[in-house]
Amino acid sequence: EAIEKGGYEHFMLKEIFEQPRAIGDCMRGRLSANEGRLVLGGIREYANKLVNAERIIIVACGTSWHSGLVAEYFFEEFCRIPVEVEYASEFRYRNPVINEGDVVFAISQSGETADTLAAIELAKSKGAIIFGVCNVVGSSISRISHEGAYTHAGPEIGVASTKAFTAQLTVLNMIALRVAHQKGTITERRYHELLVELENIPAKVEKALKLDDQIKAISERFQNARNFIYLGRGYNFPVALEGALKLKEISYIHAEGYPAAEMKHGPIALIDEEMPVVFIATRDSSYDKVVSNIQEVKARKGKVIAVVTEGDALIPQMAEFVIEVPKTDEALMPMVSVIPLQLLSYHIAVMRGCNVDQPRNLAKSVTVE
Ligand code: AGP
Q: Which residues of this protein are catalytic (predicted)?
């Protein structure tokens, strides 16, 4: 086992640090910005069905559901296709409406999650075309999907999903760009910019991983916290949900992820001088709004930990702790901004003496309802 961990103390840490390679592997042979090439071999026969889709329904659970939420933004922004992101467990019991022009995406690391499998079977029985985004080659979901794309992140052993998440975002982004290009809903310029920027992501994730020591120090300060709130907007809203899920599953600290603007409709009541609030506040189209949300938390004496874009001059004047990540396109930022949150949950869990690779009550793949 020590050999399999490759010198890391836990599988989770190894997998966090593998992300630059995993994202690179996911793009290998598929994307070349130089040649303007974006080819997804697993999406052929039904590619036109996807390009002409009237609606995309995404079904998934847990972290994979968070990837689906980011993908909703991709498909809507780039392809102008309406998207619904569904918890597989809810979708399957709801007699959902599936129309002729709908396509379904199932996202799953393991490809064995019972609820996701059942949701696909239901959608298939209603005539839907299913695209699978799985990590495990030959898994049940990959086999029953009509077509799809593997994430090629390599085996993920830690129960807390890390590299599968960033690889899912990579694949989903490539699919959305490929569809948008064919549909003509993205300008050539933006398409090319995003291909170049996608290729730069592994190096940016590598840089974000260098924050490890700084994040360890922040973790020391908050290891005994009883609650955490994670807030983000736009592309960073699903990142807030993912940060909170990571923390609760491995450290057993209660954590809530929320869209930052929704805070004033309830969770703001929780904020006092004891409450750590993690803002994912990178420079994007909602930046100014997020700055106002930070001020609202400060006014109530919350302790702000902010993930910001390198060089941000404003937020460091407000936040107790600032974590600077490299700049990238806002659509790709989740792949970078999630890194410090994975590290934060990892270090806090280790400091609390938790079993990070096999947290209590959890299984790597949930093959029961
Ligand atoms: C993630 O850290 C979790 N352990 C869990 O939410 C997981 O993402 C979920 O069970 C879905 O699994 P899948 O991707 O293998 O379908």
A: 364 (for fru-6p isomerization activity)
Ligand 1 within 6 A of CB of 108 = yes
Distance of CA 277 to the CA centre of its chain: 19
List strands edge to edge, sheet with 83-87: 83-87, 55-60, 102-108, 129-134, 147-150
Q: Which of 167, 164, 138 is nearest to 27 (CA)?
A: 167
Answer yes or no: is the C-beta of 62 below 6 A from any ligand 1 atom.
yes
Helix, strand, or coil (residue 231):
strand
Query: CA nearest 61: which of 23, 24, 113, 104?
Result: 113
What is the residue type of 26? C
- The interaxial angle of helices 163-183 and 333-351, nearest 10 deg, is 170
Strands 55-60 and 83-87: parallel
pLDDT in tens, 292-349: 999 999 999 999 999 999 999 999 999 999 999 999 999 999 999 999 999 999 999 9
> What's the chain's Rg over C-alpha atoms?
20
Q: What is the pLDDT of residues 109-123, one digit of tens each?
A: 999 999 999 999 999
Residue 286 pLDDT: 95
Question: Burial level of 270, CB count in 10 A (0-12/13-18/19+)?
Answer: middle
Quote the tokens at residue 233.
């907007």
Beta-carbon contacts of residue 54 (< 8 Å; ≥ 6 apart): 81, 82, 99, 101, 102
Query: Do residues 354 and 251 make contact, with C-beta atoms less than 8 angstroms apart?
Result: yes
Query: Which amino acid belongs to residue 270?
Result: L
Mutate to test the pocket of ligand 1, among 105, 110, 142 (most ligand atoms within 8 A of CB): 110
274: which 2 tokens? Answer: 């004891």
116 lines ligand 1 (CB under 6 A): yes
To the nearest 10°, report the CA torsion of 77, 81, 87, 92. 180
Residue with tokens 């898994």: 139
